[in-house]
Each structure stands twice: as structure tokens, then as C-alpha cells.
Amino acid sequence: MKSVTIHGIIGTIIVVAIAIISNRLYRHKGRAYAQGKSQSIPAMPGFIAAYRWVQFSTVVVSVVSFLTDSPAALKVFHTTSLIYVGLSIAGLALALSV
User: Fold this and answer.
1) Going residue by residue through the chain (98 aa), what tens digit of pLDDT does each one get?
2) pTM for this one?
3) CA torsion 11→12→14→19, rounded to 10°?
């Protein structure tokens, strides 16, 4: 097992922050603008369950890959520059979708 680097800690903090912000922005239940609407948009059956699972598993896999050196951890980020490029793209995507 490798020692945790500052880049892994920074990556973990950013991924968790993006997950929290995304969760807060896209949780519509009980919001004023969603109340009183006469027609709701139908969703595919099972989409909400799959969506929540994908959200959760993405965060878990990202954090594990930042903090461990296990072969099962899907080591995608081999260089520090790729870590920060990926985090920048994720942050930009979140900012543009708001």
C-alpha cells in the first residue's frame, strides 16, 4: 500500500465537494418551484435508483483510486497533471450545468 500523497488528499476533497454540491443543487423534492406543478415529467422506471447508485459508486471509486494503490482500485490517474486536468474538467462541468 502506498502512502497517501497531498495530491490524493486534494483530489479526494475536490471529488467529495463536487458530490455534495451536485447533491444539493439537484435535489428537487420540496422545493418551491416544484410545488403546485400540474404535470410532472415522467422518468424511466428504475431511473432514480440507478442514478443514486451511479452517483454513490462514482464517488467511492474516485476516492479509493486517489488514496490506494490496489490493482482493484482502477488506477486511472498515473500522473499528477492528469489528476488536476480531470478535476478541472469535473469542476467546470459542474459550474456550466448550474
Assistant:
1) 567 788 888 889 999 998 888 888 777 665 665 566 666 666 677 777 787 888 888 888 888 888 887 766 666 556 778 888 888 998 898 888 76
2) 0.68
3) 140
